[in-house]
Write a structure and sequence with these properties.
Bound molecules: manganese (II) ion
CATH architecture of the largest domain: Sandwich
Distance between the termini: 44 Å
Number of domains: 3
Helix content: 10-25%
Strand content: 35-45%
Number of helices: 7
Radius of gyration: 24 Å
CATH topology of the largest domain: Jelly Rolls
Strand order of the largest sheet: 2-23-20-25-18-17-16
């Protein structure tokens, strides 16, 4: 089922405004597609990542990727859905062109990471946990529990690709043995049976538990941990919407990305807003949503997003999201800035006087006095 294509609406707004978007959101509407796109100039703001072809697929592990190749509008952020079999390792690697922000969806895993000061961290992760690796930091991920570990990786460049990461086996496998002998101070023969090509996913035994209380100085952790328990955060409550936001403020290592969990109750609206400083990349875990992106110049685009779908909002574009299903919408959201910025349309209007708004909209002041009362001001 191609939710996004079926639901896409793109077109010019006449004097009547966002007529298509004014349709009452309901599950019934979700079943009957609105009129087809009226212009090819507007990009698609949705991508079915869950239905994308498998990328890397080996040893019971797999990945699916969404970057500008698959999802052209997403120039600012890319994402990868990855699953590791118990004990399997996503090998030691780094990314040259992007930082990595991740959300663990199910299962458990352990990360290792090293920074340029040679601080290293080894930490265990479970569902609802987030990690952040600054661009270029070396890291690995290993599934630790009795089940597959599924996680979402989000990168702060749409030009990221899992196919252009730098893997340790690739580098060592393509370095002459005499150079390796000098580098390690070991006989060249030591490396004779090392893999010649990139390992990427390596099957292996489930590692033992981490020591509960490491001896002093046994770990040289950096000043900022790479793990944040996002699901455990007390959410910010909006009408029908819960937001858990993790920016650099809550998670200091995460200096170039902000993440969020967004829950929308059935029938509720994540209200009209925009982000002055960042692009927005969304992954829908459950529920059915309809998002409209306002593009200025009388243009808007509406897409429908179900489980496994990615939604994208370019920096500064107005948008809102309706829950059009019977179940809660749960989504993971990421922004390519460590500082979270948002301006809501209703707050903006409320910060202006009824007199000014009356002039702006050619309506009586009383309309805006009443709107302010409705908004509880
Ligand atoms: Mn990585
Ligand atoms: Mn937003």
């Amino acid at each position: 089922m191609d939710v996004s294509r079926r639901g896409i609406v793109a077109g010019a707004l006449g004097a009547g405004g966002l007529t298509l978007a004014q349709a009452t959101p309901s599950p019934a509407n979700a079943q009957s597609p609105p009129p087809a796109a009226t212009t090819g100039a507007i990009p698609n703001f949705a991508f079915n990542l869950g239905g994308a072809p498998l990328g890397k697929n080996k040893a019971g592990c797999w990945s699916r990727e969404a970057n500008v190749t698959e999802f052209p509008v997403s120039t600012g952020l890319a994402g990868v859905l990855m699953s590791l079999a118990p004990g399997a390792l996503r090998e030691l690697h780094w990314h040259a062109n992007a930082a990595e922000w991740a959300y663990v969806i199910s299962g458990h895993c352990r990360i290792t990471v090293i920074d340029p000061q040679f601080n290293s961290e080894t930490s265990d992760f479970g569902p609802g946990d987030v990690w952040y690796f600054p661009r270029g930091f070396g890291h690995s991920i290993q599934a630790t529990g009795g089940q597959d570990c599924v996680f979402l990786l989000i990168f702060d460049s749409g030009y990221f690709s899992e196919y252009s990461t730098f893997s340790i086996s690739d580098w060592i496998g393509h370095t002459p043995p005499d150079v390796l002998a000098k580098a390690f101070g070991a006989p060249a023969a030591t490396f004779a049976n090392f893999p010649k090509d990139e390992v990427y996913f390596a099957p292996g035994p489930v590692p033992p538990p981490l020591p509960p209380d490491p001896a002093a100085a046994s770990l040289s952790m950096g000043p900022f941990p790479h793990r944040y328990h996002l699901l455990a955060q007390k959410p910010k409550e909006l009408p029908g919407v819960q937001l858990r936001i993790v920016s650099e403020k809550e998670f200091p290592i995460s200096s170039t990305m902000t993440g969020a969990l967004m829950d929308i109750s059935p029938g509720a609206l994540r209200t009209l807003h925009w982000h002055p400083n960042a692009d927005e990349w969304q992954y829908y875990l459950s529920g059915h949503a309809r998002m409209t992106v306002f593009l200025s110049q009388g243009k808007a685009s509406t897409v429908e997003l179900g489980p496994g779908y990615v939604g994208y909002v370019p920096r500064g574009c107005g948008h809102y999201i309706e829950n059009i299903g019977n179940d809660e919408v749960h989504a993971v959201v990421a922004f390519n800035s460590g500082e979270y910025q948002e301006i809501s349309l209703t707050e903006w209007m409320a910060s202006n006087s009824p007199q000014l708004l009356a002039t702006n909209f050619s309506q009586p002041e009383s309309v805006f006095v009443q709107l302010a009362k409705s908004a509880g001001r």
